[in-house]
Amino acid sequence: MDLSKSLAIGFIIAASVLGGCASNDVQNQAQAQSQGTSSAVVDSSDPRDPFEPVNREVWDFNWNVLDAYILRPITVTYVTVMPQPARTGIVNITDNLQEPANFLNNLFQGKVDDGLDSLARFLINTTVGLVGTFDVASKIGIERKREQFGETLAVWGLETGPFLMLPFLGPSDPRSFTGDYVDGFAFPMSLLEGSVNLARIGISILEARAQLLDQEAQLEQSVDDYAFVKNAYFENLAFRVTDGKSGDKAIDDEQLDDFADFEAMLEGSDFESYEEASEEAADESTELEDMPIEEGDSAEDKKASELQEKDAKSKKGKKQ
Question: What is the Cα–Cα distance from 161 to 182, expressed in whole angstroms?
Answer without folding.
Answer: 17
